[in-house]
């Protein structure tokens, strides 16, 4: 029978009692004095594992979490006056000179196609009302040029029928209506049918928005300035940094490419 180490006068230290089923006894949490068998105070919340944000903390946007995937920042919509990239319906760059000419031709057909047909009909109706007979110079003395002129004029009688005039007026009315329609479309949406077909759009350089009807009308009037100096204003977009004509620079607009 052993009584411990003879060099230790106090004998062996008593062993901590084993918990039931071989479990270790509970260890009191740090930071406070435990009571008998149970810790005092509210239980501490469990610590989140490494790689997750703590409760109450939200990682800032654009910054990756601890071990998680970085959040995607919101896609930019482009600065005012500067074409954006990649978003549906957003500008993709300045419109080329060829695209602008193509849109102009399509819109020109919309304006003039029907009126030209009406003008042709009106001309045919007016020409059919002209009758001509052989002049009678027998009663004119020799050398009397006034008599000869009067005889020639009396041989030709023409009268423009009312129907031809009405058809001509209708043609001009349709042409004016088509011009106003195109200006309204361009002012409200930035696109006419021709521009929409070619995938280009007119916007205000400072805001990126359509011009509105008033400024679109001013832009229409400024087109006459493009014809000054042998039409060089129409060719100016070929070497201009922003592909602008003289009228575009005066109004402060740019023509950009957009998805069709």
TrEMBL record:
| Superkingdom classification of source | Bacteria
Location(s), subcellular: Cell membrane
Can you tell me where the transmembrane regions are? 101-127, 162-184
- Membrane topology per record: Multi-pass membrane protein
* Keywords noted in UniProt: Cell membrane, Membrane, Transmembrane, Transmembrane helix
Q: Where is this region: Disordered?
A: 1-80
Q: Which GO terms describe its cellular component?
A: plasma membrane
Q: Which protein is depicted? A: RDD domain-containing protein
This protein's species is Streptomyces noursei
């Amino acid at each position: 029978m052993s009584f411990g180490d003879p060099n230790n006068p106090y004998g062996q230290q008593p062993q901590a009692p084993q918990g039931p089923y071989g479990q270790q006894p509970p260890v009191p949490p740090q930071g406070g004095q435990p009571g008998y068998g149970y810790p005092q105070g509210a239980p501490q919340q469990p610590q989140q594992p490494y790689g997750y944000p703590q409760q109450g903390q939200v990682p800032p946007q654009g910054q990756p979490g601890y071990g998680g995937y970085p959040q995607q920042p919101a896609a930019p919509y482009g600065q005012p006056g500067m074409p954006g990239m990649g978003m549906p319906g957003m500008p993709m760059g300045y419109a080329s000179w060829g695209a602008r000419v193509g849109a102009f031709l399509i819109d020109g057909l919309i304006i003039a196609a029907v009126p030209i047909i009406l003008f042709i009909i009106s001309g045919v109706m007016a020409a059919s009302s002209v009758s001509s007979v052989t002049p009678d110079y027998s009663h004119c003395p020799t050398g009397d040029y006034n008599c000869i002129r009067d005889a020639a004029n009396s041989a030709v009688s023409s009268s423009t029928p009312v129907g031809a005039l009405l058809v001509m007026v209708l043609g001009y009315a349709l042409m004016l209506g088509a011009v106003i329609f195109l200006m309204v479309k361009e002012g409200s949406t930035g696109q006419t049918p021709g521009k929409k077909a070619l995938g280009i759009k007119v916007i205000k350089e400072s805001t990126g928005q359509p011009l509105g009807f008033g400024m679109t009308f001013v832009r229409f009037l400024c087109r006459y300035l493009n014809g000054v100096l042998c039409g060089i204003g129409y060719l100016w977009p070929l070497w201009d940094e922003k592909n602008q004509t003289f009228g575009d620079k005066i109004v402060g607009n740019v023509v950009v490419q957009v998805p069709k």
